[in-house]
Amino acid sequence: MTDRAPVGTLAGWTAAPFTADGITHDVHRRGSGPGVVLIPEVPGMTPEVLGLAEHLVDAGFEVAVPSPFGEPGAPATVGAILRVLPRLCVASEFRAFATDARRPFSDWLRALAADLADRTPGPGVGVIGMCFTGGFALAAAVDGSVLAAVLSQPATPFPVGRRRAAAVPLSTAELDAVTGRAARGEVCAMGLRFSEDRSVPRQRFDGLRRRLGAAFEVVELDSSPGNPGGFSRTAHSVLTGEVREREGHPALAARERVVAFLRERLVVAD
């Protein structure tokens, strides 16, 4: 039991560069079992992100954590965020403000997911994105190797204006492809957010629910004043910073639902 978010370290992780479509990022790998790609949130592979990664390894997955920004293992200080975020906002690889746009990082991520699927057992892989990278998990699901996409507090495109508030970082063609796969039962997605999180407008999930129907599961944690979980109105990081390993804790329950969701999609029953 703890009053702080679970953390991890780089110990035991093997890092190597992965190149696709002219883009190269280091990828840290560990574990055995069905594959899961865990894309870090800003400012990068923080101890809290590694804590989630280690939990997934302990749950029986082989986890690949790409490092597209930030310093692996460094804490999420204000300085680290200020060094990383401005560069991401203008990077053509991510296109943080664009709507209906194809993003180079999405192509690279799909290649990584396909590579992980070739290396691991099971019918396919899962992808988890968080905050800045949340919606990229759904973009990865264009590839047939991705069977489960988890969008935790997906904050891009940054919700400046009504159109961006409802958008996800996919082009129309990519979203159509994912919608088709969902309709055929080939992929399912899960979205997680706090109820008062202005960086992740509720309309974003409403739109995805209309497109994906029963293939999109929403987990919304109450962060309104006086909420039973004790979350502040600025609560944001559902699977990392807000998790407390206490029985009955809502963010802990959300993390366990994600693990169960991945098992449902990626583990072949005996």
From TrEMBL:
InterPro entries linked:
AB_hydrolase_fold, Dienelactn_hydro
Cytoplasm among keywords: no
- Annotated source species: Amnibacterium kyonggiense
Pfam families reported in the protein's UniProt record = DLH (PF01738)
Source taxonomy: Bacteria, Bacillati, Actinomycetota, Actinomycetes, Micrococcales
Name the record gives this protein: Dienelactone hydrolase
Q: Which residues form the Dienelactone hydrolase domain?
A: 33-240
Keywords, A to Z, come to: Hydrolase
According to the UniProt entry, its GO molecular function terms are: hydrolase activity
SUPFAM superfamilies, per the entry: alpha/beta-Hydrolases
